[in-house]
Write a structure and sequence with these properties.
The protein is an alpha+beta fold and about 270 residues long. It is built from 10 helices and 10 strands. The strands form 3 sheets. A 4-stranded mixed β-sheet has the order 3-4-5-6. It has a 4-stranded antiparallel β-sheet with strand order 7-8-10-9, covered by helices on one side.
């Protein structure tokens, strides 16, 4: 999907794989484009964030989910569903693995978005034969996840406050979305969808940088001690666009918007 999770793009390139982009819309994947790409290039797998996509914050609809699975069946695609942010979503979002019965879908989840960014514990749900192969590869390449991290996750869940923690985190993020969205409106930014939940907002900067692209703006921001995530990080061809991913938990800071005004990005 495009835009896509930046680190995934880098990992695929390092693995020597060819990345083919399919546009992401506010409702999910452009399934007409997916059909064309699948027929022309015959890809082996589709990587997708279903809930609160990184970077756009968008979630797929039920209709889009069914179309994705139908295309996967027709073209023999594996679907890798990266669902790390699902528990931060405010409403109900389709889960491809549940709809598919984990036949073609490889489901990835974890706890870094809800417990702590430093808790790098995840899990895979897939067909039994595939899980066996994945476990064998993991043992050969990385052996095991640090036990202390797994025990931390187990303790957090076992204590019984996990759901209350998630609910409070959702509330705080919703408040942050409201505040940051208003700042963007005042500064003339174009917002891609309004998820009202999750960590990210995807927005096109204003002023002279809208035509120039955000890479130069990001370099300028570093001199002010501000790290921006420009759209090129999330593009398969690394195109310099005016889009920027904002983490709402930090994006209400007055210093950020003062910089945007001074840099003529508003």
């Amino acid at each position: 999907e495009q835009p896509a999770y930046a680190n995934l793009l880098q990992m695929l390139r390092l693995a020597g794989l060819r990345v083919i982009a399919v546009a992401r819309t506010v409702d999910g994947l452009d399934c007409d484009a997916l059909e064309r790409v699948a027929a022309q290039h015959r890809p082996r797998a589709l990587f997708i964030n279903t809930a609160l996509q990184n970077p756009s914050g968008a979630s797929i609809t039920m209709a889009n989910a069914f179309r994705i699975l139908q295309a996967a069946e027709r073209h023999g695609l594996w679907v890798v569903e990266d669902d790390i942010s699902r528990e931060l979503a405010l409403g109900v979002t389709p889960m491809l693995a549940a709809l598919d019965g984990a036949r073609r879908v490889v489901y990835l989840g974890g706890y870094s978005k809800v417990i702590s960014p430093s808790v790098r514990v995840g899990y895979v749900v897939a067909h039994r034969d595939l899980v066996r192969d994945i476990a064998r590869t993991k043992m050969a390449v990385g052996l095991t996840t640090p036990e202390i991290m797994e025990r931390i996750v187990h303790q957090v869940i076992r204590e019984g406050r996990y759901r209350a923690h998630i609910a409070r985190t959702r509330e705080r993020l919703a408040e942050a979305h409201t505040e940051v969205t208003e700042q963007m409106r005042q500064h003339g930014f174009e917002i891609y969808g309004r998820p009202q939940g999750g960590l990210f907002l995807w927005a096109k900067v204003a002023g002279e940088w809208r035509e120039r692209g955000a890479n130069g703006l990001a370099e300028l921001a570093l001199k002010d001690g501000i790290w921006l995530a420009p759209g090129s990080y999330f593009e398969a061809d690394e195109a310099d666009t005016a889009w920027v991913r904002f983490n709402v938990a930090y994006s209400a800071a007055p210093a950020l918007w003062r910089f945007m005004r001074n840099a003529r990005a508003a």
